[in-house]
Amino acid sequence: GAGVSQSPSNKVTEKGKDVELRCDPISGHTALYWYRQSLGQGLEFLIYFQGNSAPDKSGLPSDRFSAERTGGSVSTLTIQRTQQEDSAVYLCASSFTGFRYEQYFGPGTRLTVT
Amino acid sequence: TQLLEQSPQFLSIQEGENLTVYCNSSSVFSSLQWYRQEPGEGPVLLVTVVTGGEVKKLKRLTFQFGDARKDSSLHITAAQPGDTGLYLCAGPPEYGNKLVFGAGTILRVKS
């Protein structure tokens, strides 16, 4: 596809369950980012992948959060033992190369933890 | 901490009015990007300003980058309901390793 895609678009889960969120970046983009956004708020940086370099995980809020990027393309964000405060929209973005370049965002995954 | 502060946080105006959104920092940024986000969608890039003092126009939107590259503004002339959304500024700090986002300005234009 031409843009960044994310799945699922909506996810409702029970507290304590694990969830996986998927991101397909734009083909050829070497940089991939995950953000979290609470209702009507700005973006909270979570993690940044750039090529084959070690990811910048400095924004992950706890060790329940992890992410991987396979083959330099698709990325999965995993949240273990979900809590109600994890409820938010999770946005993925990609850019041609490093963080100095414009980012192209997917539509997001709305996560609701009940 | 390299922060981008946006003001105002929320703006509700009538169709046809003009408005300005500000994005300020105490740090120097290599460039500044402006995004607009509509409900249920991801942010979409509007423009990137790179040079201190640069002014870019996109139809009724005018973007300016401060001479010292520490601030930027977005001015909308004759706002329309279609301009409604969350406006975010973002930039790579001159000395930093990730893109920094402002908290955003929610704009509502009433018809």
In words, what does this structure look like?
Chain A has 114 residues and is mostly beta strands. Chain A is 0% helix and 46% strand. Chain A is built from no helices and 10 strands. Chain A has strands at 5-7, 10-13, 19-24, 31-37, 44-50, 65-69, 75-79, 88-95, 104-105, 109-113. The N and C termini of chain A lie far apart (33 Å). The model of chain A has no long low-confidence stretch (mean pLDDT 93). In chain B, strands 2, 4, 5, 9, 10 and 11 form a 6-stranded mixed beta sheet that branches. The mean pLDDT of chain B is 93. Chain B is globular and about 45 Å long. Chain B has strands at 5-7, 10-14, 19-24, 32-37, 44-49, 55-58, 61-65, 71-76, 85-91, 100-101, 105-110. Chain B has no helices and 11 strands. Chain B has 111 residues and is an all-beta fold. The A-B interface holds A 4, 33, 35, 40-43, 45, 48, 56, 58, 91, 93, 99-100, 102-108 and B 6, 30-31, 33, 35, 40-45, 48, 86, 88, 90, 92, 97-99, 101-104, 106.
Offer a concise description of the structure.
The complex is a heterodimer of chains A (114) and B (111). With 114 residues, chain A is an all-beta fold.
Average pLDDT of chain A works out at 93
Query: Helix and strand succession of chain A?
Result: EEEEEEEEEE
Helix content of chain B: under 10%
Binned strand content of chain B:
over 45%
**Gyration radius of chain A, to the nearest Å?**
13 Å
Extended strand count of chain A: 10
Low-pLDDT runs of chain B: none
Which quaternary structure do these chains form?
heterodimer
Which chains have the largest interface? A-B, 22 and 24 residues
Shape of chain A: globular
